[in-house]
UniProtKB/TrEMBL annotation:
Residues 53-110 form the HTH-like domain. This is HTH-like domain-containing protein. InterPro entries: HTH-like_dom, Transposase_IS3/IS150/IS904.
Amino acid sequence: MPAAEIQSRALRKIWSAAENLSDSGTTRHSVRLLCQLFDEYAWRSCAKSKRQRDNELLTGQLKQCWLESGGIYGYRKLHRDLRDLGEQCDINRVHRLMQRAGLRAQVSYRKPRAPSCEQHVVTPNRLERQFDPLAPNTAWVTDITYIKTHGGFSFNC
């Protein structure tokens, strides 16, 4: 049923009710009050738009991805997850839908570290940037890389 026909049917009901009320000697009522009395808003009868249906589907996918992350991911990472799933949507739309659904990222802050009072051992630079050793096993160089993971830090030497 087209929206125009639904609106005209609703208006006819409202006007006939208004005529009945005015004939019975009651005071005039506003159209808004009559709409509320008879619960005849035309938009309630109309089907949802394509955008509304897409938003509902996208919100469901957002909730699923958010729960899979343990409630940690924010709109940026969820947008990336949706793109990986093949969904085409803007990052601002993801942010807006998350706000409407009440999904919030878990924000973690780093604790400030107090300076340590212990003295660190500083070894002398024996290579002096001479990286061509004269014999094997006379000079060794190493590096430690800190990798942040969900379980803490991993160290790569």
